[in-house]
Amino acid sequence: MDWVSHEKDSAFVLSRHRSSKAFVRLPLLMCPDDCDVWCTLLIADVERDGTTVYWHRIGIDQTTAEEITADYELIGNRVEWLNKVAAMSFSQKKYDAEMQKLWCQ
Q1: How many Å apart are CA 22 and CA 24, to the nearest integer?
Q2: Is there a contact between 76 and 61 (Cβ–Cβ < 8 Å)?
Q3: Domain edges within the chain
Q4: Dihedrals φ, ψ of 14, to 5°?
Q5: CB of 43 closer than 8 Å to CB of 52
Q6: What are 49-66's pLDDT values in tens digits?
């Protein structure tokens, strides 16, 4: 993920993306000015069932810089959910192929 400004940010996002958990809060988009988790960060509630990936809801992370400094795992614990954004679902195979392009891994 060479487009993310900080190595620690990149490692964190990849750890959430590659998580073996069925449910994870995945950072999707970050501030384009800095490409880091310290600014505006969109989060998705992601569930995987082996064949399909579901984005149940999307929102704006409300974690403070102080909280992130203390523990990156706090990212996604407080989210302002965007109620007008509909849930989405994707084929696991196609989702993984597209995410592979995004993460350049």
Answers
A1: 7
A2: yes
A3: 7-103
A4: -65, -35
A5: no
A6: 999 999 999 999 998 878
